[in-house]
Structure formats: structure tokens, C-alpha cells
């Protein structure tokens, strides 16, 4: 069943505004090859496809960069906690006390304790 071109354009615009980029691109491509679409509508559809694809690539780059930054922050926090745990063990605290003070898991604390015992 084929919908009128104006309805398809409205649906594609709604999908774009909602942030459903892949679905919007698919619909704009359908509009661009729709037999009832005028030449202006087809040109507009291809321009929207290119615009959305560019935006989508930018969004993916930003998301990847944010994910990388979060991983770096997590590594820094992990190293900071590890050093704090090593310091607490060197002060004579027990593993249970260290777990309570740091909020870290039993396995993480015991792994750090092994490093203290090795040195």
C-alpha cells in the first residue's frame, strides 16, 4: 500500500525530529524514488538524506569520544582506589576494614592485598 508523498514527507520529518535517523533516511530515500513525487520533492529528499547522514556521523563520533573519555575516567578512578587501598594496607588495616572504607569489592581488595604482600 502506497501512501501519498505529502504523508511520507510528514512521517520522515517526524522521524528526523524524533532522532530516529536510520528510519528517517530509509523513508527519505523512498520519497526520492517514489513515482508520484515531484522533481522538487525528490531533490529535497536526497538533500535531507545527505544532511541526516552527516548529522548521524557526527553523533556517532561524539558518542565514541564520550565513551573513550568515560573509560579514561574509570581507569583513573580505579588506579586512585588501588593506591588508596595499598596505603590503607600499609597502615595496618584489615581487608574487611578496607572494603568498608573504600566500598570496593572483596576480590578487588584481595587483589590489591596480594600486590602488597609481593612487595
Write up this protein.
Keywords: Coiled coil. This is PerC family transcriptional regulator. Residues 59-88 form a coiled coil. With 119 residues, the chain is mainly α. The protein is 83% helix and 0% strand. It is built from 5 helices and no strands. The chain starts with a helix and ends with a helix.
Provide a concise account of the structure shown.
With 119 residues, the chain is mainly alpha-helical. The protein has one domain (5-118).
Structural class: mainly alpha
What is the average of the pLDDT values?
A: 91
Q: Report strand %.
A: under 5%
Largest sheet: none
What is the count of structural domains? 1
Low-confidence stretches: none
Order of helices and strands: HHHHH
Total strand segments: 0
**Distance between the amino and carboxyl termini:** 74 Å
- The gyration radius over C-alpha positions equals 28 Å
Q: Judging from the principal axes of the Cα atoms, what is the shape?
A: rod-shaped
Q: What is the helical fraction, as a range of percent?
A: over 70%
Please count the helical segments. 5
Write the layout of secondary structure elements.
Blueprint: H1 5-18, H2 21-32, H3 39-90, H4 95-102, H5 106-118
Organism: Brenneria goodwinii
Keywords: Coiled coil
Coiled coil: 59-88
Features:
83% helix; PerC family transcriptional regulator; 119 residues; coiled coil; mainly alpha; single chain; 0% strand
